[in-house]
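Batch manifest, entry 17 of 40.
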Amino acid sequence: MRILLATATAASLVAIAACGQGSAFDNGLRDSYREKALSSCVSGARSAAPAGVAIDFDRVCGCAIDRHMEGKSGTELMRENEKTDMTGAQAAMAQCLNSELRRTGAMPGGAAPGAAAPAGGDNAAKPAE
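Output type: structure tokens
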């Protein structure tokens, strides 16, 4: 009886380990999540963008999704839903979009669109010469 119990316990531990973060099962969940999220993000971004905008939406969405997925298991990602606090995902999207705009030169000087001017504006103190 002890041998049967030990064998069942060992088999259970192996099964649990096979489903943990980094396992083939977990990686499959993460790949599935990324594929669906990327498709949804790109189609949403393209439909919301003004005509003629030259942004690589695959690149921006891929960047944001990868940042959002960082450190999360496939199971955690699959449990997310519309009610999940998306602040982190939105911040990642903003960072990736700004990076893409700087890369393409659409953001002169690297300043974020709508960013506040430096304190003092044109009247800011100039260094002594």
